[in-house]
Design a protein that fits this description.
Layout lengths: L7 H10 L2 H11 L16 H14 L13 E6 L5 H6 L5 E7 L2 H14 L5 E5 L12 E7 L8 H11 E10 L2 E2 L9 H7 L7 H11 L2 E7 L1 H17 L1 H4 L5 H19 L3 E2 L1 E6 L7
Helix pairs in contact: 6-8, 9-11
């Protein structure tokens, strides 16, 4: 699928993540495995360790609806899979198969290389595709997974509809996403939205409504907003500490804009305009035709 087949917002995100500057920054600062917000046990904890803890926390939310037993033989669809850290973590269980959906060709190339190196390329199928139009059959997934990716969609309601379509009855969706706090107008987030080329962000209640409209029911909202503030602060500190090293492979203009953008996220979080946390949605069993 080419970028021209994506929505405007998705094409913009693909172009950004396919750039050499972005690829080098995320690989260097996040470690190239889990490029999302972390759960920190200490202020100066390595970003990669905190980011992996988020994967583990989301995985702990995946349970059989009736028995609360751990996930066993399952198909997981990962929406916005990045470099595939979550997919490889889940595939430590040999009974798990992951269908990874991602629009960045550069990220997908690295993802496939890391899967082959880990001997997991048969368990993980990487699709060059948009999560607004997933090239998989209805009711193919036991789990839909997404970390800090759906904000880049131009139609988040459509993404939630796709999640509901993909899930088997009784299946679950687990996700995180940087969001506006409920009731916060987009005008108060202009600096952030301009930086990421979006017109708005989701919010906990907006996601709940989008899920309800798609036939999914939210049963977990674990607010961890302090982690958003800590994460962007931690990334900005690391950028500043390693600036002279990073500018050897990343353009100074990119680093300058990233520094300013990270500060906007920190300021928005401290002002109560942003939130972040772990969510789980269920598709009711009675959805069988």
């Amino acid at each position: 699928m080419t970028n021209s087949a994506f929505s405007t917002a998705a094409s913009t995100a693909a172009g950004y993540y396919d750039s050499n500057d972005a690829d080098r920054f995320y690989a260097e600062i996040w470690g190239g495995e889990d490029i999302h917000i972390g759960l920190y046990n200490a202020v100066n904890e390595p970003i990669a360790s905190a980011s992996r803890r988020t994967v583990e926390a989301l995985a702990a939310l995946i349970q059989a609806p009736q028995t609360d037993s751990p996930m066993e033989s399952s198909c997981v669809v990962d929406l916005g899979s990045g470099y595939g850290g979550a997919a490889r973590h889940l595939c430590q269980n040999p009974l798990v198969k992951v269908e990874a959906i991602n629009i960045s060709a550069v990220e997908n190339t690295r993802h496939r290389e890391l899967n082959r190196a880990a001997g997991l390329d048969r368990q993980i199928q990487v699709h060059d595709a948009s999560f607004e139009a997933v090239p998989l059959e209805d009711a193919c997934a036991d789990v839909v997974w997404s970390q800090d990716a759906i904000l880049h969609s131009g139609d988040r309601q459509q993404v939630m509809k796709e999640a509901a379509r993909l899930l088997k009855p009784g299946g679950v969706m687990v996700m995180t996403d940087p969001m506006a706090s409920d009731g916060v107008p987009s005008s108060s987030l202009s600096a952030i939205l301009e930086r990421i080329h979006l017109s708005d962000l989701g919010s906990p209640e907006r996601y709940k409504d989008w899920a309800n409209n798609a036939g999914l029911q939210r049963d977990v909202w674990d607010d961890r907003t302090p982690m958003l503030i800590r994460h962007y602060s931690r990334v900005r500190d690391e950028l500043q500490r390693r600036h002279d090293e990073l500018k050897l492979s990343i353009s100074p203009n990119y680093l300058s804009k990233m520094d300013a953008g990270l500060q906007h996220w920190v300021e928005g979080g401290n002002a109560g305009r942003l939130c972040w946390g772990l969510m789980r949605y269920r598709k009711p069993e009675e959805c069988w035709p």
